[in-house]
């Protein structure tokens, strides 16, 4: 149930997922995957700008490090710690964690997606595209990966491909989805350099 709530990517659902996972790891303190998923849910609260309280990141760090202490080869633990490190403004350390997650599970779509996002953040759009397309090859219906690809194409100035990919993303998304970003504007017209910088910062 917690993962189903997490995958909706809405504030109320993510809070409920955190509550359920908190309860799960209280009942079983050695539940490594539960700690890892809890860490990721907590980071998402900040990542999606639903709540900027640093307490979410502190809780995430405790949970992620507990997960990896219990299971050092758990891909989800490295994914969660990497995401946390991105929000702690330590992207190079985050990259190492994302790479480790993908080394442990080469078809781990979320690890591939976050590795692509980190590459884009560090200015390497070509590698970002490779990892985002790999994530889509694992899960073609992942709206997050498709949206990431939109941003990568946007950044590279590949406007026709960007608009076509944005159309695919909008066709998959619900009107109220917080993950759609401003896809309608991408379909309507190419980005300006100012908009390009703004969207890169937003990721």
Question: What do you see in this structure?
Answer:
The chain is mostly helical and 203 residues long. The protein is 75% helix and 0% strand. The chain is built from 12 helices and no strands. The longest helix is centred in the N-terminal third of the chain and has 17 residues, at 11-27. The chain is globular. Mean pLDDT is 88; it is low at 175-182 and 190-203.
Task: Lay out the secondary structure.
Blueprint: H1 2-6, H2 11-27, H3 32-47, H4 55-70, H5 75-87, H6 91-104, H7 109-121, H8 125-138, H9 143-156, H10 159-172, H11 183-188, H12 193-202
Helix pairs in contact: 2-3, 3-4, 3-5, 4-5, 5-6, 5-7, 6-7, 7-8, 7-9, 8-9, 9-10
Low-confidence stretches: 175-182, 190-203
Overall 3D shape: globular
Helix content: over 70%
Derived structural class: mainly alpha
Order of helices and strands: HHHHHHHHHHHH
How many β-strand stretches? 0
Mean pLDDT: 88
Strand content: under 5%
Question: Which sheet architecture does the biggest sheet show?
Answer: none
Number of helices: 12
Evaluate the radius of gyration: 17 Å
